[in-house]
TrEMBL record:
Any single biological process term in GO: carbohydrate metabolic process
UniProt-recorded name of the protein: alpha-1,2-Mannosidase
One cellular-component annotation, GO: Golgi membrane
Pfam family, one: Glyco_hydro_47
Function text: Involved in the maturation of Asn-linked oligosaccharides. Progressively trim alpha-1,2-linked mannose residues from Man(9)GlcNAc(2) to produce Man(5)GlcNAc(2).
One function term, GO molecular function aspect: calcium ion binding
Amino acid sequence: ESSNAEISVFEVNIRFVGGLLSAYYLSGEEVFRKKAVELGEKLLPAFNTPTGIPWALLNIKSGIGRNWPWASGGSSILAEFGTLHLEFVHLSHLSGNPVFAEKVMNIRKVLNRLDKPEGLYPNYLNPSSGQWGQHHVSIGGLGDSFYEYLLKAWLMSDKTDEEGKKMYYDAVQAIETHLIRKSSGGLTYIAEWKGGLLEHKMGHLTCFAGGMFALGADGAPNDKTGHHIELGAEIARTCHESYDRTSMKLGPEAFRFDGGVEAIATRQNEKYYILRPEVIETYMYMWRLTHDPKYRQWGWEAVEALEKHCRVDGGYSGIRDVYNNHESHDDVQQSFFLSETLKYLYLLFSEDDLLPFEHWVFNTEAHPLPVLHKDNGNKEENQK
Ligand code: DMJ
């Protein structure tokens, strides 16, 4: 019996379904498999829309869905409906029920049918009409993990998911052409695109893309492997600068490249740091893929800053202004601090054979999921 509660389909999927799937694969305990599948079934009514693009919010008792009232004329959000793929493929794999995989494959079908402005994916899509909402494009908030899941779907399929692969590399091509710029000071950044105009701002969330470009470098078409690694390195450097240019050596929520500044937050409401993982996540991928020791140095700088400014009695807290010399704590320890920030730090200082990339992908909340190897069904027992 479900309680009368409205949940975010995306958050429940990445944190709870993803967490239960990882717990199952790491422990082999049946209870985690069973609960993951049960929870996945509770999410299915969210897909009852004319297009099959799911609602953002779902009442799990009534099965009635709706979208965020602020999202462009009733739209669903790219980073939400585009970040179900990995978990739903595993739910079908573990339950024998194809419905989960069918739901996420249909999302791709809808996306592939649509015209994309300049080859870019807008953040908003109306689940009733099947049309884009506002033409805003972001590799940070509202867009981010959609791109991540295209790449990881291909990797998780043991590189058999050619559709995911093509969608990923085509998207990166459009992002490079239209969103990636270099500041006069030589910092590469990823801007936001609003109906053809660039906002020269990069979110902390966007910093995950450095790691993504490096992770995808190997499969890049047209001899672009080195180029994608270099792009990852440049984004890592820019995001490190966003940390280094603060007094606390922790990065702001968003930083700008306009009005005479580079990699600095200029608006008071963008100066906070809520223990987010993306910059450390990128250091971890860059370390594993290049072994350049600077990534461990940069990671250690973040460890020292976290200890100095975020450690409080009983845990760690976010900071209201990273440019201030005195901490103002927000008194919140986000759950992604444990699942992502600390896990990526641990992996940054571990050997490469701990959760090796050949056998594992991390969901967007850093919960590890095994690669489904084509020749041997399911060998996760040998992958620990
Ligand atoms: C996490 O919940 C996930 O990484 C998500 O994809 C983006 N935002 C947070 C962490 O900042």
